[in-house]
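Dear colleague,

As promised, here are the two records you asked about, laid out in our usual form so they can be pasted straight into your sheet.

NAME FIELD: protein one
SEQUENCE, THEN STRUCTURE:
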Amino acid sequence: MKYVSEFRDPVAAKSLLAAIARITDALGASAEKPVHIMEICGGHTHAIFRYGLDKLTPPGIEFIHGPGCPVCVLPRARVDEAIQLAERPEVIFTTFGDAMRVLGTGKSLMQARAAGADVRMVYSPLDALELAWRNPAREVIFFGLGFETTTPSTAITVQTAAAEGRTNFSLFCNHITVPEPIKALLDDPHMVLDGFVGPGHVSMVIGTHPYDFVARDYAKPIVVAGFEPLDLLQSVLMVLTQIHEGRAEVENQYARVVPEHGNSVSLAAIADVFERRPSFEWRGLGEIDLSGLRIRAKYRAFDAEEKFGIGYGAGPRAVAEPEGCACGQVMTGRMKPLQCPQFGRGCTPDMPLGALMVSSEGACAAYWQYGGARLSAAAP
């Protein structure tokens, strides 16, 4: 297959859907007793709703939307700390667009900018480094966000800043890792999960072996998947086939992009710049051991937490969710967006209450974008 259209071929899709229906029937799955498959990545959630795969697949399959949106799992305390940094008069605070409208306890970065803070949206951390070069009298801080997908570019930017001696650049690091929250979900006695559709972009960096524990220790199948409709349908079929055959393995449907052992250059850059935090707070999941990254001592001069005495070094603090907001339950698969009392009422894309409605990978944003007012009206 060479072209996108081939990954959206309706004839091939019908064949995969027929195979999925046969194996679902063989498993005895039904709407009352479905097979629970969690898609970890927010990009997969959006693809499922964009192409209507939730409607095309049999009622015996229930998609559980996992915590695969790094902006969505960022705790409100970290947003508050980002705003504190942004409001310093000497600072130019740079961030990806998704993080601009996420509310802290009182306001968002966008609201801080409206009130006078110098907050600028960038497309890469190298854009932030260029701002530091052009503004030598200002301190430029980059809001480092994302899973292993975006971590290499941040690592390379820190390496470049060190090589150039760019002392007015620093990083507010909130990079996090995917395998650890999967383990936390599997350890949760209230979660009912039969298999996983694994993240494609993250796996492009880390490979497939970091998920070995899912099959080995928990006897759950996981299939790393691409993002086109045929990718997802084939991945669901592969998960169901493993369940039907009594197998639990890590399989790679996205082999055209994901190498078994990951990207060695990216992994080397990450290892050089970052180390694991003892723990990191995830919105909806709480503290998860070794799930966050921080800057190594050799690059400490570029650590905004060290430079400004903020963040985990100053002691983390818990911040409650907004009243009525169910982001935590949605991100851990305990609730669907339509079950949130604020969906389409107190929380819309124009006036988001929770991060899941803000981010381009958030589950609530997917429900709204591909259902909008119709879904809101149907919400209980």
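NAME FIELD: protein two
SEQUENCE, THEN STRUCTURE:
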Amino acid sequence: MILIGMAGVFIFLLTVEKGLETDRPDLNSGSVENVPGRDAEISPLATPIGQITASFGELEPISSLLVSQHSEIIAEEYFGSMRADRGHNIKSASKSILSILTGIAIDQGYLEGTHQTLEEFFPDYFANNPDSVKAGITIEDLLTMRSGLASTSRSNYGRWVTSPNWIEYVLDRPLQGTPGEDRIYSTGTTHLLAVILHKATGMNTLQFANKYLFDTMEIQVTGWDRDPQGYYLGGNNMAMRPRDMIKIGQLMMDVGEYEGEQLVSREWLVSSVIPVTGRRAGIDDYGYLWFTRSAGGYHMVYAFGNGGQYIMILPELEAVISVTTFNNGTSDWDYRRQLFNRIDREIIPWLEASWKTDGDPQSESPDHRFT
């Protein structure tokens, strides 16, 4: 079955998003003929996809690379000591899964909506530390990294995770921006989101995820850190198998549907991939904990974790890519550049050619899909 809902979402986004370049090829035609580096006379299908993905082992930190198209895994590579049955720490890519869980909590009635504020969930803290601005920070502010609170990430991360109370540490952080306007990337703010899910549902975040998402999809979480109070870490250090990362990407592709069951509403997933800009310079291609980028002339939604952990969704090509990297505690931006460049120039042309030969492309062209 070809699942086409998310592609139409991106045709809609062409008219609203501001974070991607405007001189892309015509997406409605399914053509990327003008992408630099393409040779129109040589079919990308001349090289097997498995041969292409195997060559990515040259990118030394990489530990796995899986490619799925039309809901089937078509290439699966493991490098070094990585194995198919081994869970991998996906770092901050777990933030994007937290976004899905927030949507489910709203769908199931545990949360009223993204307008709810911190004061509703941390009343004791604000009774002892009155601050009307902090108290008014909303769930949407947490989802878009626009809480305004000083970051607990990067150079501040060590001090945060060695503190005796991670929740209070985050809430005690000074305001360095205006909530709802200024984007400041911080794992501390997504940790508050995980704690809110715990408080609202009466289940810890893993129990909630298992009940409404993971068990149904047969996804195994092989590890997940907790804070000193026992709350699962919101937005970091979740471990799962690469095949399960592909399942998460496919759920996005299918706009929340899994084997005929709607696990999370289409409306939520559509909202979650629309970039929400912040007033300050910074990440302007960020929705509800999902990134977007232009990849080889196509739209890509992706989850990103430190060191090079990715779940990539290419709706117009009905494809999902997962990447894991041996964690070294740092982000290697040269590796990221090489990885993206090779995906854009080697894997995406193959997926495009495969999509075009999978029947009449015009009969399922993006402009005829869900909007």
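A couple of things worth noting about protein two: Residues 10-40, 359-371 have pLDDT under 50 and may be disordered. The chain is about 35% helix and 15% strand.

Best,
R.
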